[in-house]
Write a structure and sequence with these properties.
Blueprint lengths: L1 E2 L5 E5 L9 E8 L2 E7 L3 E3 L3 E5 L2 H5 L6 E9 L5 E3 L3 E6 L8
Parallel strand pairs: 1-9
Antiparallel strand pairs: 2-6, 3-4, 3-7, 5-6, 7-8, 7-9
Length: 100
Amino acid sequence: MIIRGTTPTITITTDTDLSEASTIYVTFSQDNRKRVEKSISDIRVSESSLLVDLTQEDTLSLDAKKKVEIQVRAKLADGKVLASNVMTTIVDRVLKEGVI
């Protein structure tokens, strides 16, 4: 679950070592619209996981009580391009809106 207005770290476990990838994008989408996208410079990469930090602005851009879809796309050093399955989680509301 992602709560609006917070700064969570999203951990995505991978079955492919992406530590040598030349390009990585993690996209967060709602209602078939890209809401947040993080690139390789925003992602901490290890052999088996990606750590994606979201800002308050990022989470406030998501609508509460709706699913958010998350997908990883990566280009490996050898030119091979991969995409993860689409993952989903719910976005919960916060009582005090806005950046604090």
